[in-house]
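Below is one record:
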Amino acid sequence: MSMDNLAGSTARNPDLDWSQVRETILMLALAVAQIEMSMRDSDESVEVLSNSFTSMVGQVKMIEKTVASLPDTAETADAKAAIVGSCATVGEMMRAAIVAFQFYDKLTQRLSHVSSSLGTLADLISDTRRLYNPYEWLGMQEKIKSRYTMVEEGLMFDAIMQGKTVRQALALYVQAIQDKKRQAASGGEDIELF
């Protein structure tokens, strides 16, 4: 039984073939489906926003070019300065939006990892030949950890695998991110947050 084959006995309709393993797999499949649908829905919205920002950048550049081509007279100087200032403000706002898109991209990468990890877990649980083999679990855990792109994610993973609570693991993650930001602010090293 894998996540692709979930038919059979359920808690709503139990028979002699009912098992908590199948129920667990059903719940994992539901979680994966919800994550996948959420990412698909949000991807469409972000695509619309991204296209809008691309268009706005072009429009702002055209406004700046048009203003630059106007004659420099006493009557137009204040208006030109105001337009150029407004274009600069809009440009800063668009840069801030682009940073927000980078955070969104990071979020979707993480959700994709979670979805994949849940699928991998469901596949392992559904295979009785692998379910009780500690080496299979270690292999699955290493596969999950290998997908992480940030050191801090690995720290959080290791904390959970060492038996720390979710709250403790998150605190370690947050502390590592704060340390990284402090180090970057002090000029200690060039880092890329995304």
